[in-house]
């Protein structure tokens, strides 16, 4: 249920309601606006008697049952868009971010070169996989801990925060120690033990949509993270499996406006995995921006033809530079802006 406090409610009133929510066995979630304070009470469906109990409290203006199964992700709990920030930029609301870098960390020279040029062209975050979940057990699996340490070195030189994938609950502590955001890939989008584990960290989580997930299932996966106390989740549409074989997956651009009408969480696009071919990446990225996405995550490599994973979909530096130029041209038309991400001299 959603509890709307009376106008002018202060910290004492908020604490009173929070304590009462906890007393009856629910979990509180406070959202404070300029004029209104909302307190979500998360748990099993409230009884009519419980709704009336909270309506009768002197601090309460109204109590609304939450109809969505994804409680904390719902706009009913938090009507305003969530904004997640790093020193280099923010995402959510009117703030747009770009994360870019190679599919996998392959060497010190490769990741440092990529970090330098993605920053030079305006990216606000560096992506790179230290642990790689691959369809084939014989494909490149990443550098592991050494890859994480190289990402940390790239961050130290460029100032870019890093996002990298975590594959299992046992890896969460290690990856969270090194990374600024934890990525949950499409193959792990319904690994509920992993979702709960990252939900118990204080690091933002980038959750990619599973290749066969409905949007409601996607939000229910996000709910696993949110329900453990971590409210910093970014949803990423990365393409779904359809009958079409011209691209690696089919980018569901409609997911952007639909999700933004259902949830306060930032919504990003991953054009690289949807396309599977670098020739289509820029067009799909721009489609996502035009649809209202809050960010994009793009694969780019100093020498894509020599990449050890996903070589066909990684952009050359000049292609990434052109993509960034086009993204900047579209952002004002959709009421968004990139904050931070200062270019290297």
Automatic annotation (TrEMBL):
Keywords: Transferase. It is an enzyme of class 2 (transferase). InterPro entries: Aldolase_TIM, Class-I_DAHP_synthase, DAHP1/KDSA, DAHP_snth_FXD, DAHP_syn_2. Residues 92-328 form the DAHP synthetase I/KDSA domain. Its EC number is 2.5.1.54. One of its GO terms (molecular function) is 3-deoxy-7-phosphoheptulonate synthase activity. This is Phospho-2-dehydro-3-deoxyheptonate aldolase. It comes from Calidithermus roseus.
């Amino acid at each position: 249920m959603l509890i709307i406090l009376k106008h002018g409610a202060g910290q004492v009133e908020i604490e009173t309601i929070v304590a009462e929510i906890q007393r009856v066995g629910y979990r509180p979630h406070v959202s404070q606006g300029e004029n209104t304070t909302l307190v979500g009470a998360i748990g099993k469906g409230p009884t009519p008697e419980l709704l009336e109990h909270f309506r009768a409290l002197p601090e309460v203006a109204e109590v609304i049952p939450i109809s969505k199964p994804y409680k904390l992700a719902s706009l009913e709990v938090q009507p305003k868009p969530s904004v997640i920030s790093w020193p280099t930029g923010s995402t959510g609301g009117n703030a747009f971010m770009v994360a870019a870098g190679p599919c996998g960390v392959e060497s010190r020279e490769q990741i440092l070169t990529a970090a330098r040029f993605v920053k030079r062209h305006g990216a606000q975050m560096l992506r790179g996989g230290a642990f790689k979940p691959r369809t084939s057990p014989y494909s490149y699996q990443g550098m592991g801990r050494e890859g994480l340490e190289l990402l940390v070195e790239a961050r130290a030189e460029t100032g870019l925060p890093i996002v990298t994938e975590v594959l299992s609950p046992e890896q969460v502590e290690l990856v969270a120690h090194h990374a600024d955001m934890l990525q949950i890939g499409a193959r792990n989008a319904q690994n509920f033990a992993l979702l709960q584990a990252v939900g118990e960290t204080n690091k933002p989580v980038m959750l990619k949509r599973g290749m066969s997930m409905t949007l409601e299932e996607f939000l229910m996966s996000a709910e696993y993270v949110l329900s453990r106390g971590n409210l910093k989740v970014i949803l990423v549409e990365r393409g779904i499996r359809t009958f079409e074989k011209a691209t690696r997956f089919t980018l569901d651009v409609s997911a952007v406006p639909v999700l933004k009408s259902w949830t306060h969480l930032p919504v990003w696009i991953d054009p690289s995995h949807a396309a599977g071919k670098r020739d289509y990446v820029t067009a799909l990225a721009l489609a996502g921006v035009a649809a209202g996405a809050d960010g994009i995550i793009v694969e780019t490599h100093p020498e894509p033809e020599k990449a050890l994973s996903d070589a066909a979909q990684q952009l050359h530096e000049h292609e990434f530079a052109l993509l960034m130029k086009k993204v900047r041209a579209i952002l004002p038309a959709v009421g968004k802006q990139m904050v931070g991400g200062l270019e290297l001299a």
